Amino acid sequence: MIKSYYSMGLILVTALALSGCFGGGPNAPVSLRVLNYFDTTLPGSAEEEARVWDAFEEANPHITIVREDLYGESYHAKIAACIEARKFPDIIFAWPSGGSTGLHAGKFLKDLSPLAAGDKLGTAFSPAALDGGAQAAGYLGILPRSLTSTHAFYVNTAVLADAGLTAAKTYDELKAQVPILRSKGYETIILGNQDGWVMQECLFSLIAGRFCGEAWEQAILSGKAKFTDSDFTAALEFIQSLYIDRVIARTTLLIDYGDVVTQFAENKAAYLIDGDWRAQAFIPLERQDILVTLFPEINGVKFNDSTSVVLGAGWGISANIRDKSPEERAAWRLIQWLSGRETQTWLLSSGKIGIPSRIDIDENALDLEPIQKEVAKFAREYKTGTAVIDRVFPEAVYSAINDGLQEIAMGTKNPGDLSFTVQNALDVWKSKQ
């Protein structure tokens, strides 16, 4: 009788193990529910489905994907309903903040950092992409598939060659080029400075990050630091020096954002400051002589290898998924596939992303325009991604900064006064929360 019970118990344990109740093997059958942000009406959507999703299931026959494709408001309505019900798909397409802040704030996404560290993703991804502090949850809730630098330093090598110069590596070199370029009839740097957001997004956010350090915006938002502190004021003083040194002319306040590319393409200046997205405007021009890099090194600042970065969207795993379960293993395998080298290479070559979050992609091997290759390699140009002001501070604050930066350009406001104005805007906003 005892032997019979023993045999039955052994059979039951074996059955449970095979069914996955004890964790299952690495290839245990798993079904994953996926919420994808995807417009099936766009050209190329069928190719993306075949190249990305169908290919994954073919390579992983033990994983069944039940995918729901939503786009626009229908997607956001679905997320809102999931948050209200506290029930989520296993895999969720999301942004690092913005419209996905509710997912992050509620801690409804797993922290992917242990999984990323376990698979040594730091060797394949940009450090900025794996910076959990840059996401609204404060940890790595999603694995981004792309990056956007709101700053890019476009270099017109034809203009520089005509003046007998090469691209400046430091601010002192840049300042020394001003009289030489002016003698040849060229401006040094132009930007669409008539629009208030451009200086703030495309240059000052980078400068603030270099002077104030990593996560400077969180220190201010938490009250541990203030806009009136010496480092932020020094960043504003640097902007003032750009005009005093004539590196940027005050006449740029008359340049509309829509016109600046034309002026740069017509060789009016040696350098253009804009976002990395502006590279698309140069593709029809077939320019071979434009480089894309970072603003030159500034002596004495904290982070010369930084730029202002917005993480792209990506995929996260529902916090409801158990650690080390077959579902987690399968979900992580899918996320790595969706952000894998092959997938990102295809997304890059098809124009669906501009800067991949991976740094192990050889853009020179792809059929891209020269300017696209310049932008694609941009993630290897910097080690630190710092905050974009109008993405993290309320409108009352970034509007005060936008207006103040133009006032500094006109010489009607000094950096110290602007620091107090901005801090006051933040204090008033906080008092109303």
Q: List the uncertain runs.
A: 1-22
| CATH third-level topology of the largest domain | D-Maltodextrin-Binding Protein, domain 2
Overall 3D geometry? globular
The biggest sheet, with number of strands, parallel, antiparallel or mixed sense and barrel status, is: 5 strands, mixed
CATH class of the largest domain: Alpha Beta
Number of domains: 2
Q: Tell me the name of the CATH homologous superfamily of the largest domain.
A: Periplasmic binding protein-like II
Please characterize this protein's 3D structure.
The protein has 433 residues and is an alpha/beta fold. The protein folds into 2 domains: 26-145 and 312-361, D-Maltodextrin-Binding Protein, domain 2, CATH 3.40.190.10; 152-309 and 387-431, D-Maltodextrin-Binding Protein, domain 2. 43% of the residues lie in helices and 14% in strands. The chain has 17 helices and 13 strands. The protein has a 5-stranded mixed sheet with strand order 2-1-3-11-4. Strands 12-5-10-13 form a 4-stranded mixed sheet. The termini are far apart.
Give the tags.
single chain, 433 residues, alpha/beta, D-Maltodextrin-Binding Protein, domain 2, 5-stranded mixed beta sheet, 4-stranded mixed beta sheet, 13 strands, disordered N terminus
